[in-house]
Design brief:
The chain is α/β, with parallel strands linked by helices and 293 residues long. The chain has 14 helices and eight strands.
């Protein structure tokens, strides 16, 4: 049976750039799958939000791995997961890779921020020395059991050390064993276009509405040469806005507001797998017992 890590590798090698919207739980993962996208990105910011925290490095490795497992179990698509800084030194990175891989994740990314880290589109980030991060990349590459498990090296150096340093780090990480480079938060369209020109390997673009990177058409991103685009905040920000509107309507009207798209109870349960479970109610009964019911 082909693993999702192998399937994801094949997608990266294909003609189209992979677009992976961000999921933070099983419901959002299923919605992405039902919408026809080829892969899912487990957002660290969204995962933190589900337990009531901002993206400030407050979520532990075990909490992140558990959420990644729930998402991977809910869908058939490959899951690419945020692994922050690896949650410590090289030893912690080895365990992180093993835990993520064991729980069904197909790829993860590790960043060069100090800990506790911050969202890549916030200010005042701390960047660790090159060798500290590269040692983690080497450790991650050595820790995987499936050679198709993808290690993505994320550098946040653009914000503090400049674009040239970010490109240099991306190339060093690829030489150290990473499979893909993630230059976080390029700040102009020229920088966005230059990343895949200057980096000697596959590149990821992080698409964040209202962030430091300019808005861009993903068709143009593919033409630039990127192999993966993640859209982490799309669903979790959309859900917050929809919830605010629904709660305001309930408070004002004192009636259950109509959902943005009317949906019966049965339809809602069908979106999260009821049709797969319903046949199991009687599948294991003897034929005579089924007839008597």
């Amino acid at each position: 049976m082909t693993s999702n890590a192998t399937r994801l590798r094949a997608q990266f090698a294909g003609g189209d750039m992979v677009i992976a919207p961000g999921a933070y739980d099983g419901i959002t993962a299923r919605l992405i799958e039902q919408a026809g996208f080829p892969a899912i990105y487990m957002t660290g910011a969204g995962t933190a939000a589900t337990i009531g925290f901002p993206d400030y490095g407050l979520v532990t490795m075990s909490e992140m791995a558990e959420n990644a497992e729930r998402i991977a179990r809910a869908v058939k698509l490959p899951v690419i997961a945020d692994a922050d800084t690896g949650y410590g030194n090289e030893l912690n990175v080895v365990r992180t890779v093993r835990e993520y891989e064991r729980r069904g994740v197909a790829a993860l990314h590790l960043e060069d921020q100090g800990f506790p880290k911050r969202c890549g589109h916030l200010d005042d980030k701390e960047i660790v020395p090159r060798e500290d991060w590269l040692a983690k990349i080497r450790a991650a590459a050595s820790a995987r059991t499936n050679p198709d498990f993808t290690i993505i090296a994320r550098t946040d150096a653009r914000a503090r050390l400049g674009f040239d340093e970010a490109i240099a780090r991306a190339n060093l990480a690829l030489a150290a064993g990473a499979d893909m480079a993630f230059v976080e938060a390029p700040q102009t369209m020229e920088e966005v276009a230059n990343v895949p020109k200057l980096v000697h390997g596959p590149c990821l673009l992080n698409v964040v509405y209202g962030g430091k990177t300019p808005e861009v058409d993903l068709r143009d991103v593919q033409k630039m040469g990127y192999r993966l685009a993640i859209v982490p905040g799309l669903l979790f920000k959309t859900v917050m806005s929809a919830c605010d509107d629904a709660l305001a309507a309930l408070k004002k009207e004192h009636r259950h507001p109509v959902p943005g798209r009317p949906m019966t109870v049965q339809q809602a349960f069908a979106r999260v797998g009821a049709n797969d479970w319903d046949p199991l109610r009687t599948a294991f009964r003897e034929p005579t017992a089924k007839a008597a019911e």
